[in-house]
């Protein structure tokens, strides 16, 4: 939580009443009634964005089926305009008591263009849970979980006591990079490229 504003970092990022001067990665790209799309910090590739819930929810599953359908519709819209190949969706679904590898306990899903072929990258690492491709069976009591979806495949895993940023750690290792920690490597030049791809100017 931010002691000055009482908001977590992602609550502040999607707060329309926040100051005009924003960090470059808090620039809104697209929005719906329940979600805001912003550039990912420490992106692996240009076009890497996050879908962030407007309300402070711990994970996508906790938001209910109406909002999950809204999320799916938003992702379909982004997929059509990205032009970078199929998206890999990745979420560290936190619970109220455990982060599930998330750095911030606020629902946010990373969308990474061109990496859907790595949807099975955690298949041998974590116990699997059942979920359908449309996420209609994604429930809040699955948390903490890791959700990966792409290329017509969806994977859901139990995420008790997993390392912080596990998705990023494994994904970056798969492509031979060690700059997985977004806090240490924010890659702001790639964030700027993402803004340009979306035809947006930085607010900060």
What can you tell me about this protein's structure?
By secondary structure, this protein is α+β, with helices and mostly antiparallel strands. It has a single domain, classed as HIT family, subunit A, CATH 3.30.428.10. Helices cover 21% and strands 19% of the residues. It has four helices and eight strands. The chain has an eight-stranded antiparallel β-sheet. The N terminus is likely disordered.
CATH architecture: 2-Layer Sandwich
In this structure, how is the largest beta sheet organized?
8 strands, antiparallel
CATH topology: HIT family, subunit A
Strand order of the largest sheet: 1-2-3-5-4-7-8-6
Number of DSSP helical runs: 4
Output the CATH homologous superfamily.
HIT-like
How many E-type strands? 8
Q: What's the gyration radius in Å?
A: 16 Å
Order of helices and strands: HEEEHEEEEEHH
Helix- and strand-based class? alpha+beta
Helix content: 10-25%
Report how far apart the termini are: 21 Å
In the CATH scheme, the class would be Alpha Beta
Shape: globular
Detail the poorly predicted runs: 1-5
Number of domains: 1
How would you state the average pLDDT, rounded? 90
What portion of the residues fall into strands of 2 or more residues?
Answer: 15-25%
């Amino acid at each position: 939580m931010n002691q000055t504003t009482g908001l977590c970092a992602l609550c502040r990022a999607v707060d329309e009443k926040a100051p005009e001067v924003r960090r470059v990665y808090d620039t809104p790209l697209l929005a719906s009634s329940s979600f805001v799309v912003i550039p990912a910090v420490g992106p692996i590739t240009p076009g890497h964005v996050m879908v962030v819930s407007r309300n402070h929810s711990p994970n996508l599953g906790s938001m209910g089926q109406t909002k999950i359908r809204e999320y799916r519709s938003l992702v379909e819209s982004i997929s059509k305009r990205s032009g970078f190949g199929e998206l890999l969706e990745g979420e560290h679904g936190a619970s109220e008591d455990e982060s599930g590898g998330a750095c911030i306990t606020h629902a946010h899903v990373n969308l990474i263009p061109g990496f859907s072929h790595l949807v099975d990258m955690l298949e041998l690492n974590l116990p699997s849970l059942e979920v359908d491709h449309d996420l209609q069976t994604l429930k809040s009591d699955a948390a903490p979980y890791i959700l990966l979806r792409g290329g017509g495949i969806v994977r859901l895993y139990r995420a008790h006591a997993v390392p912080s940023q596990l998705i990023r750690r494994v994904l970056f290792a798969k492509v031979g990079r060690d700059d997985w920690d977004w806090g240490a490597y924010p890659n702001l030049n790639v964030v700027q490229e993402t803004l340009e791809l979306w035809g947006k100017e930085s607010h900060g």
